[in-house]
Amino acid sequence: MALVKSGWLWRQSSILRRWKRNWFVLYLDGSLLYYHDQTQRDMDGRLHIKHSCRDVRIGPECRDVQPPEGKSRECLLSLVLRDASKTSLCAESEDDAVAWKLALLEAKSTPVRLPPPQNIPQKGVGYWGRGSGGPKRSPVNVGVSPGVWADRCLPHGVKGVGQS
């Protein structure tokens, strides 16, 4: 999946409200992963922006969050989640906070496109039989390319791919 943005952000813990510095990686499919450091060996957590994020706020819009010591309010980001919780983050600078907000909104709104088929047969569902008034339609497995709907009529007794 395509990388949108990566970098250091401060993340506020949900229970003790302490700030911890993490390496964040945002992918175009909406996955926001955060790690202990840049090696990306130890993942500390994951958010799926497309499904769980309702809004992204920065700076003064983050009313009830105090930034980490030495950081200004303009560096704050708040991810408002669909379950009414929020994740508070803090960027290294105001410009970086704006860049993260734009990247998060891009990942949230960009439709995920699947790669083109590789001409590898996959099992799909087709039907044998006629429509209304004819014999009952029975599902059979037929080879299809990914993302292609197969509706093939097979004569009685002919097995589809993967059928015994």
Characterise this structure.
With 164 residues, this protein is mainly beta. It has 2 domains: 3-109, PH-domain like; 117-164, no CATH class. It is 12% helix and 37% strand. The protein contains 2 helices and 9 strands. It has helices spanning 49-52, 94-109; strands at residues 3-12, 19-27, 31-35, 43-48, 53-58, 76-81, 86-90, 122-128, 138-144. It has a 7-stranded antiparallel sheet with strand order 4-3-2-1-7-6-5.
Layout of strands and helices, then pairs:
Layout: E1 3-12, E2 19-27, E3 31-35, E4 43-48, H1 49-52, E5 53-58, E6 76-81, E7 86-90, H2 94-109, E8 122-128, E9 138-144
Antiparallel strand pairs: 1-2, 1-7, 2-3, 3-4, 5-6, 6-7, 8-9
Keywords: Membrane
Domain PH: 2-109
Main location: membrane
Radius of gyration: 24 Å
The CATH class assignment of the largest domain is Mainly Beta
> How many H/I helical runs?
2
CATH superfamily of the largest domain: Pleckstrin-homology domain (PH domain)/Phosphotyrosine-binding domain (PTB)
**What's the CATH architecture name of the largest domain?**
Roll
What's the quaternary structure here?
single chain
- Overall domain count: 2
Protein structure class? mainly beta
- Helix and strand pattern: EEEEHEEEHEE
Instruction: Give the beta-strand count.
Output: 9
State the share of residues found in helices, binned by percent.
Answer: 10-25%
Strand content: 35-45%
Query: Strand order, biggest sheet?
Result: 4-3-2-1-7-6-5
Broad shape: globular
Major beta sheet summary: 7 strands, antiparallel
Mean pLDDT: 78
Pfam family, one: PH
GO cellular component, one term: membrane
GO biological process, one term: regulation of cell differentiation
Keywords: Membrane
